[in-house]
Structure formats: C-alpha cells, structure tokens
C-alpha cells in the first residue's frame, strides 16, 4: 500500500472528486460511514460518545460520524471548538445536518461522564504550525480526561510526516486513519501518541494512487500476499536453496539455535550452521534437520569447507567480536554470497569500515537503532534518520532493515517499506536472531533481496502476533516465534490441504 505525503494527500482527494465523479461532501460521507462502522463495532452501545470538533474537514468527518452513530442509537454529544461562521463549508454543512435530538455545545461546556469515549475530530492533515487556543486547550482537556480516545485520521495536532518530536498532540487509544497510514503514525516521534493504528479504506481513486509518486509504502497482508514464490512440483532439497548460518559462540550458542530453527521454516532445501565445534550438540538436539559445520575455535575463526555449496549466508547473531572473527568475516564477505548481516557482524562492519566495501550487492543488513547509529552516524530527527539509512543502503547496494515498531525496510533505490505486523512483546533478546535465520533461508530459497526482506519482516511480525495471542506479550519469547512462523505463512500462502 502506498503512503502519500505532503500535498499529494490533498491531490488524491481532489483527483477522486474530479474523476469519479463524487463531490467532497459525498467523499466525506463515505469516509464517515467507514469510521462510524468501526466505532459501532468496537465501542459498547452504553458508552457515551463525546465528539471534539474543529473547523476543517476533519471536524466535518466528526460531525457526520456523530449523526450516523446518533441514528444507530449511541448517546452522542458534540463539542465545537469554533463558532459556526469559522467552519469550512463541508464542516458547516454537516453541522446543519445534525438531527435535533443531538446535543451541540461549545467546547468549554464539555462534560465527560465515566466511561465516555472521546472522538477526536479537532485537526487532521490540515494542521499547520504551533497549536493555538482554543485547540491547544481542547487537546489538553482530552489528554487529561482519562477517557478512551478515538482519533479520526491523525491524533489532533500531529503533523502527517515529520517534526513531531516534543509536540503537543492528542494521545489516542486508537487512530482511524483514512485510506493509507500517514507516515508520522509509523515513526517513533508520533507513533507512540497514535495508539493502535487502523487503516480504513475510503475509496480514493485507484488510478491516482497507482500513478502517484511516493517513496513510502505500508506492508499489510495484501501487499505481503503478492510476494510468495510457488514451490515447484519437482522440487527437491538440492534446488530449493542451501542457507549457511554463521551464528553463535561458546557463550551464545542459543543465537545459532534460534536462527537455525527459523531458517528451517523458510522453505529452503538445506540449512548448514557453522559454529564452534564444542557447541554443535545444541543445534543437533534442537534442529536435527540442520547440518553442522564445526569451527575448531570457541569463536568464529574460519570458513566452512566448500563455500560453493551455499546460496546465501546469515551472519552475526551471537558471534562476538574476537579478533579472529574479523579475519573470518573478511573471508566470508570475499566469498561474495548474498548475506543477511546482523548483530556482531554489523558491529564489525562499523569497527572496520573498509570491510563494508566487500558486502555483496543484494545483501540485507538488519540493524537495530544502536547498530544503525554505529553504521550510519547519529541523527537529530526522524527525517535525518531515514536519509542516513537511504545513504547506507545506496552506498552498499543493499536493503537495510531498521528493526523496531513498524520495522522499516529501505531498498538501495531509497524506497521505504513500513511493516504493519508485530507487537511490543517481540522486544526481547533472540527475536533478531530468528529474523536473521528466516531471511537467510528466504534468500537461499530464491527470493529477491527486497522481497525476502519485506515478506520475511511481515511474517516474523505475524508470528509475533500469533505468539502474543497464545502466550501474551509479556510471556512470549523468541523461541515461540519459530513455531508460529508456520501459521503466519499459512495466512499468506494458504493451507496446502485446502
Ligand atoms: N483526503 C482525504 O482522504 C479525505 C480527508 N478527509 C478529512 O479531511 C481532513 C483534512 O481536512 P482539512 O484540510 O480541512 O484540515 P483539518 O485538519 O481539518 O484542519 C484545518 C483547519 O485547522 C486550522 N488549523 C490548522 N493548524 C492549526 C493550528 N496550529 N492551530 C489552530 N488551527 C489550525 C486551519 O485553520 P486556518 O489555519 O486555515 O485558519 C483549518 O481551518 C483529513 O484529515 C480527513 O479527516 C475526509 O473528509 C474525506 C477524504
Ligand atoms: K483528528
């Protein structure tokens, strides 16, 4: 799904109005129906609804939703931040359409009895500059209310893209964003205040959305479902790819166990794990399907024999940064295999930057924020972070996967794909090892690097969501992700048994 930014958001609106044809009131009605339907399905009918309404079209949406939910039997009260003469045409039109029995009062008279759900329709994508009164006071009132808050399109006050650090905005429980998620909802500066993000389709022109230029995309289930390779009828273990994993050391053999378990769920034909010989039983015991190549040293010190057998390599989790491992990493990179590079392998690339030139084009780097800082340099804002990631991806000709909420996959041509799946329960040691093993398996299986990164990150997140449903976010751990990778794939690939 494409994420539009800046003036293109309004342009999509105008294009739809001109070409469909549909007038802007009818488009607002369509958006509002979608919002009202979501609220009716997720809020108990006995909860009072308080609509905080601004003067632009975001407010117009709020008024139309209030009318629809009042008719559906909800107890609705509308609180206006501005006088009637200040409202946009669409907003005023919807104010006039409110049925008689629906209470409409100035914002100063807002009353929020226990159990109230606030619908935040003060400001959407039209916000400019600093918040001033009366909106600033309204935002503060919402945030201090302790009520559940459903924001329409954006938490009011938030810019659609960048510049939200330290900004006063509504803190939403849920944000119902229209047609596509606004970029700010996916970035840490604004994302925390957005709560759960739900994307509601409102039928903007498909033709416009296809043509519109954007560097930003959102990987939802539909986008992920376009990526899987089919498995040939005459497949055998020799033509489905052989993944090599260079993971684990004496103190961190578990990283190898996790990466191996995940690689074995990727569909590739063979998985070989290279780790200190002393630790090989840990892999044999947990993953009897894997082949083990034993390093005579307690750290990564040399290459496995016959590197020509492998189609892709995953390197880094748990390898440590012993001086011998730098030499071994250099030899591994010189072998020229597409690689998934993570953890200590990334740190070695930061410590000896000349190694970066040896990274094969079409590799995938999977840094968390600390590793990204060491590789690309620090940043002062989200847009600078994205620019630095783009520079790194383009300089190395690789995909860079920046891990975190809404993990971002940045391609070497500068496109950024934000992931929709996953949850905070995955923020635990070992999750990254699972991702590395899974991505290396997908590369070996024959996926293009960008497809492997986008699909692998999405499925890893879905496995996390399944694990959270089963164990809860606190109790789930990285090993559980491996088990649920299979269910995650069935959601996207379909079940083979029909
Ligand atoms: N495209 C779509 O998909 C569709 C979009 N739709 C909806 O429209 C929304 C966008 O509507 P919008 O453009 O009217 O802007 P919106 O956010 O309501 O507010 C603008 C008003 O706020 C004011 N204002 C601004 N900054 C301020 C500040 N700092 N402090 C104080 N005031 C400030 C500004 O006043 P001005 O500065 O002009 O005096 C102006 O009057 C969008 O988010 C979605 O909900 C749907 O209806 C249908 C399809
Ligand atoms: K809003």
Automatic annotation (TrEMBL):
CDD domains: YXKO-related. Binds 1 potassium ion per subunit. AMP binds at residues 403-407, 432. Residues 9-210 form the YjeF N-terminal domain. Its cofactor is K(+); Mg(2+). Keywords: ATP-binding, Isomerase, Lyase, Metal-binding, Multifunctional enzyme, NAD, NADP, Nucleotide-binding, Potassium. Its EC number is 4.2.1.136, 5.1.99.6. Belongs to the NnrE/AIBP family. Belongs to the NnrD/CARKD family. This is Bifunctional NAD(P)H-hydrate repair enzyme.
């Amino acid at each position: 799904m494409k994420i539009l930014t800046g003036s293109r958001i309004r342009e999509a609106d105008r294009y739809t109005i001109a070409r469909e044809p549909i007038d802007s009131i009818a488009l607002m009605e369509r958006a509002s129906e979608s919002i009202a339907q979501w609220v009716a399905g997720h809020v108990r009918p006995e909860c009072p609804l308080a609509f905080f309404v601004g003067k632009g079209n975001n407010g117009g949406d709020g008024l139309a939703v209030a009318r629809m939910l009042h008719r559906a039997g909800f107890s609705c009260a509308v609180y206006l931040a501005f006088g009637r003469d200040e409202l946009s045409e669409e907003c005023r039109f919807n104010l006039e359409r409110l049925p008689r029995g629906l209470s409409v009062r100035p914002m100063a008279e807002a009353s929020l009895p226990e159990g109230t759900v606030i619908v935040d329709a003060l400001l959407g994508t039209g916000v400019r500059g600093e918040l001033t009164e009366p909106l600033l006071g309204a935002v503060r009132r919402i945030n201090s209310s302790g009520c559940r808050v459903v924001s329409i399109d954006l938490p009011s006050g938030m810019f659609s893209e960048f510049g939200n650090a330290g900004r006063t905005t509504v803190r939403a429980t849920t944000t119902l964003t229209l047609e596509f998620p606004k970029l700010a909802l996916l970035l840490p500066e604004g994302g925390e205040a957005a709560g759960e993000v739900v994307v509601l389709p409102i039928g903007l022109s498909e033709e416009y959305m296809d043509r519109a230029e954007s560097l930003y995309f959102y990987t939802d289930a539909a986008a992920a479902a376009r990526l899987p390779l089919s498995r040939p009828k005459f497949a055998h273990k020799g033509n489905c790819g052989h993944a090599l994993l260079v993971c684990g050391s004496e103190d961190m053999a578990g990283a190898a166990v996790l990466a191996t378990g995940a690689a074995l769920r990727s569909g590739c034909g063979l998985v070989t794990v290279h780790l200190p010989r002393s630790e090989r039983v840990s892999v044999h015991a947990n993953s009897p399907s894997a082949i083990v190549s034993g390093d005579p040293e307690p750290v990564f010190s040399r290459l496995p024999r016959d590197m020509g057998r492998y189609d892709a390599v995953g390197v880094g989790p748990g390898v440590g940064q012993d001086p011998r491992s730098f030499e071994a990493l250099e030899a591994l990179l010189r072998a020229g295999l597409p690689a998934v590079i993570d953890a200590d392998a990334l740190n070695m690339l930061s410590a000896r930057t000349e190694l970066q030139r040896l990274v094969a084009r079409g590799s995938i780097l999977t840094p968390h924020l600390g590793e990204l800082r060491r590789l690309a340099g620090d940043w002062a804002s989200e847009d600078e972070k994205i620019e630095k990631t783009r520079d790194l991806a383009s300089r190395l000709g690789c995909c860079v996967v920046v891990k975190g909420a809404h993990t971002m996959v940045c391609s070497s041509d500068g496109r950024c794909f934000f992931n929709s799946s996953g949850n905070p329960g995955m923020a635990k040691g070992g999750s990254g090892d699972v991702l590395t093993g899974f991505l290396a398996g997908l590369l070996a299986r024959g996926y293009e690097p960008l497809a492997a990164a986008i699909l692998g990150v999405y499925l890893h997140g879905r496995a996390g969501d399944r694990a959270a449903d089963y164990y809860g976010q606190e109790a789930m751990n990285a090993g559980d992700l491996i088990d649920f990778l299979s269910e995650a794939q069935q959601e996207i690939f379909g079940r083979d048994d029909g």
